[in-house]
Task: inverse folding
């Protein structure tokens, strides 16, 4: 089974297993002539990434109550896949483009193509390193183990992104301020 077929199967399994008000709702899927299609509920406001980085003045349109609502909704969806649904799910690609927003700016965790199902009481799943640059936990560079903690780290990066409006990795910036987490840690050391 190819990588794309595995990712498609993982997403269908995860979304069939996990149903929560802050997870995208899988309406259906289709496999036909080598094409794979997932049908989700429509999200009128697109992704958090769109509002923070693509939409002109989008970040400034997100007031503090809306940002808090988005953070709470996304955290509830993540907590559900980690603690409640059986088997638990390690998402492995939490990022602002995988947090979708409906008409009322309710947040929905999306894109379970890289996720892995794990049995309760396990704390990790051994798998290949995946994720998006800027969201990958530092410990992943030393091991090939995807963990629930890794998802939490990535979610923390999303929260910093939501608070600062900055991308997690800006390759065209000076090296010292290229990574959002490193930049925030430096500001913290300086008491800023």
Result:
């Amino acid at each position: 089974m190819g990588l794309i077929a595995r990712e498609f199967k993982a997403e269908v399994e995860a979304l069939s297993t996990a149903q929560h008000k802050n997870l995208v709702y899988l309406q259906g899927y289709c496999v036909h002539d080598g094409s794979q299609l997932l049908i989700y509920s429509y999200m009128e406001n697109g992704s958090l990434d769109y509002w923070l980085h693509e939409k002109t003045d989008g970040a400034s349109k997100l007031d503090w109550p809306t940002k808090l609502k988005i953070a709470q909704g996304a955290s509830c969806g993540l907590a559900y896949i980690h603690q409640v649904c059986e088997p638990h799910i390690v998402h492995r690609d939490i990022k602002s483009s995988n947090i979708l927003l409906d008409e009322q700016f309710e947040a929905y965790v999306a894109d379970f193509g890289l996720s892995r199902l794990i049995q309760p009481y396990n704390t990790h799943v051994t798998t290949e390193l995946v994720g998006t640059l800027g969201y990958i936990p530092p410990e992943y560079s030393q091991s090939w183990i995807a963990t629930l903690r890794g998802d939490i780290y990535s979610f923390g990066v999303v929260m910093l992104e939501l608070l600062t409006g900055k991308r997690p990795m800006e390759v065209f910036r000076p090296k010292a301020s290229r990574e959002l987490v490193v930049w925030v840690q430096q500001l913290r050391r300086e008491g800023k």
